[in-house]
Amino acid sequence: MSKKRVLTGDRPTGRLHLGHYVGSLKNRVAMQDEYEQFVMIADVQALTDNAQNPEKVRSAVNEVMLDYLSVGLDPAKTIFFIQSTIPEIAELTIFFLNLVTVSRLEQNPTVKTEIRDKGYERNIPAGFLVYPVSQAADILIVRPDVVPVGEDQSPMIEQTNEIVERFNNYYPAEPSVFKRVQARVPQGGAARLPGIDGVSKASKSLNNAIYLSDSPEDVRKKVNDMYTDPTHIKKEDPGHIEGNVVFSYLDLFDEDQTELAQLKESYTKGGVGDTEVKERLVNVLEKFLAPIRARRAEFERKPEALQTILRNGGARVRAEAAETMRLVRRAMKIDYF
Ligand code: TRP
User: Fold this and answer.
1) Orientation of helix 87-97 relative to helix 131-140, angle to 10°
2) pTM check: above 0.90
3) Where are the domains of the chain?
4) Structure confidence by residue, pLDDT tens digits, 36-81
5) Measured from the CA of 7, which atom of ligand 1 is nearest?
6) Is-contact 111 70, C-beta < 8 A?
């Protein structure tokens, strides 16, 4: 039996942080053994709201690729590629745009939030408004079975499946050119990692995240700045675990959950200071990040290796894309010669 195919991707707009690790990278590392896994660096999508900032996107492509390799995504198992190296995605986007209405795009909850946050209103770049369509093409170009995404991306998968239905309806073929894809959204604690401020989830724009490439000094400083329990003033005061960012991180990264459970109990009763808990987290994170940093440094020394991985991945995807477009053209009756 052949392996099921999965595709995921990230917008290259900066380095990746622990929130990305918990919400997706960890899962990708686990999936690469069982699935045929494609990971796309979505530079075209990043440019939809960074058109005047090509240097930022270019350098982030490199950073994101280093982040992937540093956490143990393995080019022998996972196929990495850059979106703009697959021109068939742009071609497929053009055909998909006929299957979607402007009002439907304006109702996309993720895009709606982004429009509000960026203050675009009617000045939204047209390319940004239609990026969900381009994302459907990113996905469908390799005709995957599963698309693991964060909660905020579910509307994109819904949109993709609407396009699948409409395409197959307008352009029937036997078998259908596309099949519906299955979203896989992380559940429970893995769904979101809080930022160090404890106000919202870890995010680059809020400047509240610990990066996979942060130095030991950065990590220590950020852990010291973490929001804990404002009612836990003196060491003897009873403390709260719920909403305490240090414990949220320990829950996800501490390898000794038994000892952690005991620590939580003592903290709740009173008698454990924040300094002690933070010191534990610094050590836990160092243990986690040290090998990641080492692997990153190794790949930083060989930029040609990164280029080769991305070039080979791109070639592999273009072969898939050519077959997809052959089927698309035939179904759309534009296979002239
Ligand atoms: N929109 C996704 C994000 O912001 C990135 C992305 C682009 C993507 N193309 C994709 C994710 C295809 C999954 C599949 O995180």
Assistant:
1) 120
2) yes
3) 5-193+303-331, 216-297
4) 999 999 999 999 999 999 999 999 999 999 999 999 999 999 999 9
5) 14
6) no
